[in-house]
Amino acid sequence: MEKMALHKTSSDGAGRGPEVARLTVRDLASQAGVSPMTVSRVLNKRPDVAPGTRERVEHIIAQSGFVPARAASARREGRHGLVDLVVPALDTAYSLEIARGVEAALEPTGFRLVLSCTHSSSRDLARQERMWLAKLSQGRTDGAILVLYAEQSRRLGELRRRHIPFVVVDPVGDLGPDVPSVGATNWAGARAATEYLLSLGHSRVAFIGGPLQQLCAAERLSGYRSALDAASVPEVPELVRPGNFMDDMGYKQTLALMELADPPTAIFAGSDSQALGAYAALRELAKRVPEDVSVVGFDDTLLAPLVTPALTTVRQPLAEMGRFAVRDLLRLLDGKPLSSMRVQLATTLVIRSSCAPPGRGS
Amino acid sequence: MEKMALHKTSSDGAGRGPEVARLTVRDLASQAGVSPMTVSRVLNKRPDVAPGTRERVEHIIAQSGFVPARAASARREGRHGLVDLVVPALDTAYSLEIARGVEAALEPTGFRLVLSCTHSSSRDLARQERMWLAKLSQGRTDGAILVLYAEQSRRLGELRRRHIPFVVVDPVGDLGPDVPSVGATNWAGARAATEYLLSLGHSRVAFIGGPLQQLCAAERLSGYRSALDAASVPEVPELVRPGNFMDDMGYKQTLALMELADPPTAIFAGSDSQALGAYAALRELAKRVPEDVSVVGFDDTLLAPLVTPALTTVRQPLAEMGRFAVRDLLRLLDGKPLSSMRVQLATTLVIRSSCAPPGRGS
Question: Which of A30, A94, A290, B71 might form a disulfide with B333, Cβ 3.0–4.6 angstroms?
Fold first, then answer.
């Protein structure tokens, strides 16, 4: 098992965000101008609260991000808790890796992992999102770990209003200082990959990336640029090709890149899938990896060591991210504060066989 | 979506096995020599039954395979049911595919998918198996879908004694006529793959397979042999290499095969992972796929279309197997009989780019 470096980040400059779990019922009562008993009644959905009062208290609870210690009470009741893992789809090694980490971390706790996808085969996204939200909100969950395609601030607000603690894994947008999340050091990973290609002697290094509205994709592009800057290699706009993370995109962009008058000698792809798309395009053009073109991926999913040549890639510790999310969620469930609302786990460059110095092929 | 052919199999030659769900409480009562009310009390774990009587009735229930209509009562109570999916590990595309099918089929039912692995990181298999069995047995599950490494007849008997309905996906051994299972037509798939290689003109076709004590591996070897027989191509013992389904095995066996005085011109691998191991070995030997050696895999997991050259493989409909298992489980949960205790879904040969006629490379 690799060692794990932990990078704490803070979005409010004060070194920590508002730590929701430190709030007490007494704090909420004082903010709402009611007794702690009334807050407690609202939290327990008891009927003996005036509707106007209930609404005011619920509003303050929702604003505050207060998370009741659900698990503690669940454990007192002697029943096994349920933790939901919500992933976009089960058709990628990416989802598999995160699920593996979540499962392994939950296994010894007595909590059971409930798995659902927001995007299943029917592709009626809106309906599916409503369904899982409804399921989560019916109170049969103790907490949720969320992997989301989009930012979904409104949905997250809904969970908060219903006092369901959650942690976001690999956030795609800036969720604000009070949303717990676990990500990876995308910037540092992209910088390390680019530096590695530059160190082999490549000066025309292409970047095929994900959609730039996604935080991770923007961070990776920024890391790539930073490495070029540091090596005083000017950025060439035609070599920078954001798109999406799928293999098709890697394939198309590689074909386009290789048609340039001065094609790249190395390609840094934003995902392993894209890198395999690049492999396919290069083979079609009778270019060898790594003799003619070097390729680096990002993720280190189960594909990377299995392909030929084995893929050099930036390891995103997806399973560990799942494990950290569980750890944070268990703290929230116990009513304890998080030491950091946003955690980024270190990426590492895994060197295999898909890179070589330029000019070997000629 | 491909069409699905359904092959019903029967192990007792009479066209159907004992159909457990048709048994009524009255049948059990008559077998046990007690009143239906007493059987009902035992099923509902009521205290007002003499210990000796309870034991006798429980024994008869366990022997009979009787499954009470749990889901119906769960639905009457208005709560959402839980269906457990138990897989060996979450480190293969194989598990991912099955989970995807199970999730998609459960999503519209209101049942929630609880995921657990028998083999997680700690590798203390015995303890983990006890743990998930304990979880399943605590009555917080409505039913289970099981993907098992080993035959586990004893564990399955335990579930049956506790009246937890279950369906086995891709059974590794002969589980007897009264265990519901969903598999794939391994024999037909292997025969089709071998016939395809023979039809391209190969006569030295190697077979790298899984462990022969596993039903699917034995069926695939048998399908391979059947195709050779039908084409009057004699089987060459040194070309037949069972082992396990991992990529390492594919790699090692391919290296060994290519060292033969008369090496094969085509390799039929028992899994996609093995096929990718073969790719790696062939590259190391500077042999091209498919110009020098053709390769066929088995499974058609997400790896197959992504690798270069894209892998020709036998599609095992893993997601569909998961969906069928859910369908059968829902019938058992409703107290309805299964039309067939053992179902095999059709495999299909998916032709991509890893095969060519022999002798192209020279």
Answer: B71
Indicate whether B221 and B303 sit together in one domain: yes
User: pLDDT higher for B116 or A229?
Assistant: A229
Inside any domain, residue B359: no
Identify the closest residue of chain A to B320 by CA–CA distance: A121
In angstroms, the CA A94 to CA A92 distance is: 5
Are B217 and B282 in a shared domain? yes
Same-domain check for residues B74 and B55? no
Same domain, yes or no: B216 and B98 = no
Nearest CA in chain B to A301: B91
HSE toward the beta carbon, residue B112, CA cutoff 13 A: 27
The stretches of B124-207 forming alpha helices (DSSP H) are: 125-137, 153-161, 186-199
Q: Give the nearest partner residue to A276 out of B247, B280, B306, using CB atoms.
A: B306
CATH (domain of B39) = 1.10.260.40
Instruction: With respect to residue B292, please indicate whether it lies within any of the assigned structural domains.
Output: yes
Q: Could you list the residue range(s) of the whole structural domain that residue A195 is in?
A: 186-317
Alpha carbon distance B68, B142 (integer Å): 10
Q: What pLDDT sits at residue B149?
A: 72
Residues B160 and B11 in one domain: yes
Specify the higher pLDDT residue, B118 or A223: A223
- The verdict on a CB contact (< 8 Å) between B116 and A113 is yes
Place of tokens 């396990």: B244
ipTM: 0.74
B107–A138 CB contact, under 8 Å: no
The most distant pair of C-alpha atoms in chain A lies apart, rounded to whole Å, by: 82
pLDDT(A64) > 70: no
Q: Are A93 and B283 a contacting pair at CB < 8 A?
A: no
**C-beta of residue B288 within 8 angstroms of C-beta of residue B282:** yes
Q: Do A308 and B280 touch (CB under 8 A)?
A: yes
Q: Quick one: what percent of chain A has pLDDT higher than 90?
A: 50
Global pTM reads: 0.76
Give a yes or no: residue A337 inside a domain.
Answer: no
CB contact under 8 A, B307 and A302: no
- Does A13 map to a domain? no
Residues of B in contact with A302 (CB under 8 A): 91-93
- Residue B10 vs residues A220, B179, B201, B214, B344: alpha-carbon distances, Å: 56, 11, 36, 19, 10
What is the CATH number for A256?
3.40.50.2300
Q: What are the tens digits of pLDDT across the range A233-273?
A: 999 999 999 998 889 999 999 999 999 999 999 999 999 99
Chain B: give the shortest CA distance to residue A158, in Å: 21
B286-342 tens-digit pLDDT: 999 999 999 999 999 988 999 999 999 999 999 999 999 999 999 999 888 898 899
From chain B, pick out residues whose CB is under 8 angstroms from the CB of A120.
Answer: 103-104, 107
Residue A97, min C-alpha distance to chain B (Å): 7
Task: Name the one residue in this structure whose structure tokens are 């971390």.
Answer: A105
| Cβ of residue B131 closer than 8 Å to a chain A Cβ | yes
Total residue length of chain A: 362
What is the least distance, in Å, from the CA of B89 to any CA of chain A?
A: 8
Nearest alpha-carbon partner for A311 in A299, A327, A324: A299
Q: What is the mean pLDDT of chain B?
A: 82
How far A76 CA sits from the closest chain B CA (Å)?
A: 17
- Tokens in use for A327? 């750890």
Q: Indicate the residue of B82, B99, B276 with minimum beta-carbon distance to A90.
A: B99
Residues B266 and B200 in one domain: yes
B116 in contact with A at a CB cutoff of 8 Å?
yes
Whether residue B326 sits in one domain with residue B179? yes
* Number of domains into which chain B is organized: 3
| Interface test with chain B among A2, A92, A107, A326, by most B beta carbons within 10 Å | A107
Integer-rounded Cα Rg, in Å, for chain A is: 23
